Backbone:
């Protein structure tokens, strides 16, 4: 590799994290993002174990800590807003929790002077040759890069171009999720509420700006045929599934119409035998999405970016050696993180009245059992289940 010119698709979290480390090791990263700017809003994301150590090595841990949500008590309520049960403090937030939009802003600020950002564009096609990848963008421009990294999420364009159809890799878990910002009209203070009926769960959380809160909707259904970027259609789907629900749901659906950051997608995982093909490589949700229910997706992305960039530096830019090492070092960690969501979704959003009742009983007795600590300690143990190599002083440019 002569100059280490690397294109990264996706400017959310995994992409800028990779760009940060690539620049550190002497590569020249470029990020292309289909949105016109860094996307705001989004749900709260967790850091545990190794991912915290990566933030520390980036020098960004203090800034992330400054923006953390610090959500404590989460109360399960009935339609009359009476307490049914509660979840242990820290159960949903890991060692550190921050809103996705806040983290994306921090990563963008840390890389904007050292990374070329191309907004409002995306990859249309790629053609690989012996010494590079010719990329055609949706805008019509053409450029050549040494490598291409797909950090473009569950519906990765890089994955579809370089590896094949999405259906071959995405495993639908039977649920959809929607999250958006609302006014903090319930005056929650670093706390959350959950309300559920069979096959549906609604949450309201406040942990950042005291004037704002996040509304979350989960619901069970067969796979839906809806346009990925058609928010009007997605909002209609949400209304059709929750329009007859009580509690705060009618008001939340009203706030949905003016939400600046409406998000809607399936709850799915990505399973792949390989994360690289030739000069293309995947990381984050594009390669190993664990689903929002795992609480490990962003941590995996940040660790994966660190390992991928480090192995490219360690190999002197030899992408074949680096990609193989990246997969070998990350595979078991990814499998453990994805395993957290396997089988857990039916307990988080029970489909029957009996399982909903059983779930409430479990949460009622949990504070008085040894399981309380175990449910926090197991994800932390998994978050620490990868040893981070020290790549300091390496350079990847030949």
Residues:
């Amino acid at each position: 590799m002569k100059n280490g010119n690397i294109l990264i698709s996706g400017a959310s979290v995994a992409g800028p994290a990779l760009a940060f480390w690539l620049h550190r090791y002497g590569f020249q990263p470029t990020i292309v993002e289909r949105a016109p700017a860094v996307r705001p809003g989004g749900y709260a994301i967790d850091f545990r174990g190794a991912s915290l150590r990566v933030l520390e090595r980036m020098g960004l841990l203090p800034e992330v800590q400054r923006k953390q949500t610090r959500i404590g008590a989460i109360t399960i309520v009935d339609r009359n807003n009476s307490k049914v049960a509660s979840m242990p403090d820290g159960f949903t937030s890991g060692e550190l929790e921050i809103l996705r939009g806040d983290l994306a802003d921090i990563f963008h600020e840390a890389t904007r002077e050292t990374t070329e950002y191309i907004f409002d564009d995306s990859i249309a096609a790629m053609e690989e040759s012996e010494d590079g990848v010719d990329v055609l963008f949706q805008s019509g421009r053409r450029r050549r890069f040494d490598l291409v990294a797909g950090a473009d999420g569950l519906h990765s364009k890089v994955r579809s171009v370089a590896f094949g159809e999405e259906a071959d890799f995405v495993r639908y878990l039977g649920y959809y999720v929607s999250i958006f910002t609302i006014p903090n009209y319930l005056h929650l203070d670093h706390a959350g509420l959950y309300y559920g009926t069979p096959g549906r769960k609604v949450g309201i959380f406040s942990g950042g700006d005291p004037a704002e809160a996040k509304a979350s909707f989960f619901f069970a259904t067969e796979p839906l045929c809806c346009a990925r970027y058609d928010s009007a259609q997605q909002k209609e789907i949400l209304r059709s599934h929750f329009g007859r629900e009580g509690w705060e749901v009618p008001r939340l659906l009203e706030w949905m119409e003016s939400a600046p950051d409406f998000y809607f997608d399936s709850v799915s995982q990505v399973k792949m035998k390989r994360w690289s093909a030739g000069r293309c490589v995947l990381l984050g949700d594009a390669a190993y999405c664990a689903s929002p229910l795992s609480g490990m997706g962003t941590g995996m992305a940040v660790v994966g970016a660190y390992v991928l960039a480090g192995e490219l530096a360690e190999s002197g830019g030899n992408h074949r050696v680096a990609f193989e090492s990246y997969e070998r070092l990350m595979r078991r960690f990814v499998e453990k993180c994805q395993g957290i969501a396997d089988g857990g979704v039916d307990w988080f959003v029970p489909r029957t009245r009996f399982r909903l009742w059983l779930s409430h009983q479990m949460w009622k007795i949990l504070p008085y059992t040894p399981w309380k600590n175990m449910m926090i300690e197991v994800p932390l143990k998994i978050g620490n289940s990868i040893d981070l190599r020290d790549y300091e002083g390496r350079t990847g440019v030949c």
User: Anything to note?
Assistant: Residues 319-339 form the longest helix (21 residues). The longest strand covers residues 170-183.
